[in-house]
User: Which sequence fits this backbone?
């Protein structure tokens, strides 16, 4: 972040705007969510299957799996058909479909399939890439190159794309917990991160109400869709955290909530309907640190230590626009030292492989060095350098939320959404939930052993025990 006394340094070079058109592209699925005026907007485009790309030579498969030129697609590594075969919109053999139990065209369909099999097993010379039929994998076809057409392949290089198609269909879920005292800008940051208005009906308690306020748990769920990918985002807010005079145990409801979700998941996993388990486990906890103190407060240390083995903690310094650049750096260093000193296990970014791209390695190092992220939030759009941006207006200039020179907001959002969302989920499942599960199983085993030992007690003693219980 730049120093606040220099208005020129706050001028934007970004061209981000919130146009009506972009916002109207959003689809909010839950009925109760239709009240939200904003939703996902301007994350840089991610290429997805089903997305048409005019500049590419080949085309994506449409819903029927039919190639745009009406020909059958090539199977990986197998020679293509010498001439086009008409394909039919439904039941097209080009995209593998689940078996249909009731078929109306029983007369015709087998013939169609037989022709297909015959052509796949033929060993005719491959056609030149330009004249080859389009693949259902479009630009994801790993066997598209002319060179590949000369070789024989089994075809399993398409496996990642098969997985992708299935997961995209299912949609994604992500649960984020925000913790930190009231007024640190938690709700503003969440709205800025996900371009939603999750806190529309929020009632902010007055000072008197806050004295005796207990920590509550509020969940907000919104379904957002971007470029055909659906994300069900749940934000767990903790109003009242650190508000009460007696802060001891402020984190207990948070801990209980996380445990409860693990317990539910454990029950569902052991139940009959394991296919449709809804994953409500908390994947990440954004822990807000006040910019006004000298690093971590005792409450911060106690809370993070209570949660660090249950959830991925990502610490953030709130309202970074209230600090100069030098102050931000000093605060970050102090907080990192304290995290080490108190043995707090925050979320560790996975190590980059040595053979990774240099740019990626640099980006990864930048992420690691930026912890705790110094963030700024804003719910309003302001004019800066002729562009509309999310920002905060001061007499000396505009602080832009998404300007990397002003805060780590973009780093945080990219990490959370674009680069590490899946890793956060994996860590939750593989580390935190596994710990919980192992603990549960060992408790259950101990109880079982005790009940076996109890059942082998002498009859008289057992009778006395039964009588006592009665
Ligand atoms: P919460 O109680 O932690 O959810 O905090 P809010 O999001 O309600 O924000 C409390 C106040 O801080 C509001 O007046 C916000 O406008 C303001 N605020 C939020 N984010 C920032 C920020 O990054 N910088 C500054 N200076 N103020 C902020």
Assistant:
């Amino acid at each position: 972040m730049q120093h606040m006394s220099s208005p020129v340094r706050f001028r934007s070079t970004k061209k981000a705007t919130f146009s009506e058109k972009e916002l109207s592209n959003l689809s909010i699925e839950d009925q109760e969510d239709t009240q939200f005026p904003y939703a996902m907007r301007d994350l840089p485009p991610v290429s997805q299957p089903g997305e048409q790309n005019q500049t590419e030579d080949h085309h994506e498969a449409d819903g029927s799996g039919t190639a745009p030129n009406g020909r059958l697609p090539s199977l990986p590594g197998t020679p293509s058909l010498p001439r086009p075969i008409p394909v039919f919109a439904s039941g097209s053999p080009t995209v593998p479909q689940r078996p249909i139990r009731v078929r109306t065209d029983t007369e015709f369909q087998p013939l169609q399939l037989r022709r297909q099999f015959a052509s796949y097993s033929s060993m005719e010379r491959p056609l030149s890439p330009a004249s080859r039929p389009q693949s259902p994998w479009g630009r994801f076809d790993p066997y598209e190159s002319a060179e590949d057409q000369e070789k024989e392949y089994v075809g399993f290089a398409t496996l990642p794309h098969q997985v992708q198609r299935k997961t995209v269909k299912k949609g994604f879920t992500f649960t984020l917990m925000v913790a930190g005292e009231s007024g640190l800008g938690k709700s503003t940051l969440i709205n800025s991160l996900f371009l939603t208005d999750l806190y529309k009906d929020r009632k902010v308690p007055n000072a008197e109400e806050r004295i005796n306020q207990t920590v509550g748990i509020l969940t907000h769920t919104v379904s957002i869709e971007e470029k055909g990918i659906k994300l069900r985002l749940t934000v767990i807010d903790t109003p009242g955290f650190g508000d009460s005079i007696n802060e001891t145990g402020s984190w207990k409801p948070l801990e209980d909530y996380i445990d409860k979700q693990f317990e539910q998941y454990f029950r569902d996993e052991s139940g009959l309907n394991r296919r449709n388990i809804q994953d409500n486990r908390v994947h990440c906890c954004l822990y807000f640190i006040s910019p006004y103190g000298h690093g971590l407060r005792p409450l911060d240390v106690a809370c993070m230590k209570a949660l660090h083995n249950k959830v991925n903690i990502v610490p953030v310094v709130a309202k970074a626009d209230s600090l100069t650049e030098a102050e931000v750096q000093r605060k970050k260093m102090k907080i990192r030292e304290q995290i080490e000193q108190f043995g707090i296990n925050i979320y560790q970014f996975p190590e980059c492989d040595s053979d990774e791209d240099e740019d990626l390695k640099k980006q990864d190092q930048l992420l690691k060095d930026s912890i705790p992220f110094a963030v700024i939030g804003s719910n309003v759009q302001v004019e800066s350098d002729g562009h509309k941006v999310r920002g905060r207006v001061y007499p000396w200039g505009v602080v832009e939320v998404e300007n990397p020179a002003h805060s780590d907001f973009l780093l945080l959002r990219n990490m959370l959404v674009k680069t590490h969302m899946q890793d956060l989920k994996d860590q939750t499942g593989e580390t935190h939930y596994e710990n919980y599960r192992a603990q549960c199983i060992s408790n259950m085993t101990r109880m079982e052993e005790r009940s076996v030992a109890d059942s082998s007690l002498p009859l008289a003693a057992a009778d006395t025990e039964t009588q006592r219980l009665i």
Remarks:
- The CA atoms of residues 444 and 450 lie 10 Å apart.
- DSSP finds 13 helices and nine strands in the chain.
